[in-house]
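User: Predict the structure for this protein chain, please.
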Amino acid sequence: MIGLVDNLIQLLKEREKNREKLFINFVEPMYCSFNLAHENYLDSLVRYQKFCEGEIDFELDELLALAHIVMDDSRETYHIRRSCLEQSQLLSEMTRYDFSPLIEAVDDYFNGDETESQFINKQRHPIALCINHRRSKLSSYLDYLQLGISDESYRKILAHGQIQELIDEVQGSRDNVEKEYLKAKYALLVK
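Assistant: Here is the predicted structure, written as structure tokens:
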């Protein structure tokens, strides 16, 4: 009887170690990659906002320059987003625990909801092919400002407002990822 109890205790300890390893080797690295990408988004969006607040006339050349900055930023950080999504894919292949809420939150953060992604992917804008959905949305909006708004000061106000809206959206999506990450952490390390 004592041997059976000892075996059960040993099995529970082994299970606890395996859950801790799962967290350390998969969940935590994915979340660290996610945070790196998120900080990049925020830094970029704040930089774009400051660009709009600067002493520029916001003529077509300035809009084009901002669109190029958006595209360059996205290309430079593609590997961070890709790493996080690949790590979340590994989590999805683990059948013992259900990480789907965390994986879906990360996917929504990077790719947006389905209708938004379909809208962006249907565009023939070259920037939509190489950047994430939020930067693509911003780029599309800048195109709209170039083509549809002739008053430069009004362009500036609208661009600034759109960027603030994206900042709020990014923060909301990040909060959702963090909530799901904390649930996964609790399930693996506390239960």
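The chain is about 85% helix and 0% strand.
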